């Protein structure tokens, strides 16, 4: 097994006034050659958007973009005609494919919105752009990881053009679980949303990231009440269709 630890305090940081963002991997003005990506996981941004502010209309292409709200309401509009609101308990995916434009704004004038912005390289280029969002309220579990994203449109959660699986878990102190890798050659990047946990005896705290690869499984323990996101992705960029 190989691993990499990214403590929360080592992330890139940008404060634009209306946007306070922490970057696990190189993004915009933050550039670290040692932290360009984890396999096909290219971007993991931890964003806070001021009341009534947001990202104006801008383009994307050939990227799978996943948004996971943690607090507040985020209003989404795109060139496919979608106008919707995503909030805590939802997961959104946008396959930018051949090209798309979109905007995202904090819908509320009296509170921040906090969300994860995640980019994954796709395994097919120039696909027809696609948008989807789900509520995870009916599939979430306690003290176990549950799937919120996969490569299969018929599975639970949203789907992407990549051999990737995302799981969330809400755990009470003392709870344990074991994660099995879904596809040979994949790795898992764990991101702690709340609490303190251990993965294969590596202690992790809030907003720490920990990547593991060249393994079939790993053990998980929650030392406090916690919430964790697991992102299983191919480790080779040759699997991106680039």
UniProtKB/TrEMBL annotation:
Cofactor binding note from Swiss-Prot or TrEMBL: Binds 1 Fe cation per subunit.
Cofactor: Fe cation
Source taxon at top rank: Bacteria
Signal peptide region: none
InterPro entries in the cross-refs: Pirin, Pirin_N_dom, Quercetinase_C, RmlC-like_jellyroll, RmlC_Cupin_sf
Residues that, per the record, bind Fe cation: 58, 60, 102, 104
Keywords, ordered alphabetically: Iron, Metal-binding
Domain Pirin N-terminal: 11-120
Residue ranges of every copy of the Quercetin 2,3-dioxygenase C-terminal cupin domain listed in the record: 148-233
Pfam families hit by this protein: Pirin, Pirin_C_2
GO molecular function, one term: metal ion binding
Family to which this protein belongs: Belongs to the pirin family.
PANTHER family the record matches: QUERCETIN 2,3-DIOXYGENASE
Name of this chain's protein: Pirin domain protein
Organism field: Allomuricauda ruestringensis (strain DSM 13258 / CIP 107369 / LMG 19739 / B1) (Muricauda ruestringensis)
Organismal lineage: Bacteria, Pseudomonadati, Bacteroidota, Flavobacteriia, Flavobacteriales
């Amino acid at each position: 097994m190989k691993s990499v630890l990214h403590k929360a305090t080592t992330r890139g940081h940008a404060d634009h006034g209306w946007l306070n963002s922490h970057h696990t991997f190189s993004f915009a003005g933050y550039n670290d050659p040692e932290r360009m990506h984890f396999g096909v996981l290219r971007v993991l941004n931890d964003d806070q958007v001021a009341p009534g502010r947001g990202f104006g209309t801008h383009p994307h292409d050939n990227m799978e973009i996943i948004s996971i709200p943690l607090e507040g309401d985020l209003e989404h509009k795109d060139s496919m005609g979608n106008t919707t609101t995503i909030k805590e308990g939802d997961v959104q995916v946008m396959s930018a494919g051949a090209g798309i434009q979109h905007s995202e704004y904090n819908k509320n004038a009296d509170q921040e919105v906090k969300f994860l912005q995640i980019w994954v390289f796709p395994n097919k280029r120039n696909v027809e752009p696609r948008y989807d969002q789900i509520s995870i309220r009916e599939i979430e579990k306690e003290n176990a990881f549950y799937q919120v994203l996969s490569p299969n449109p018929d599975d639970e959660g949203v789907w992407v053009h990549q051999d990737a699986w995302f799981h969330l878990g809400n755990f009470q102190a003392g709870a344990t679980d074991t994660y099995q890798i879904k596809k040979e050659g994949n790795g898992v990047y764990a991101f702690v949303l709340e609490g303190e946990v251990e993965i294969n005896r590596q202690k992790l705290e809030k907003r720490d990231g920990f990547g593991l690869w060249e393994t079939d499984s790993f053990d998980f323990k929650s030392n406090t009440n916690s919430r964790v996101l697991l992102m299983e992705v191919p480790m080779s960029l040759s699997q991106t269709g680039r």
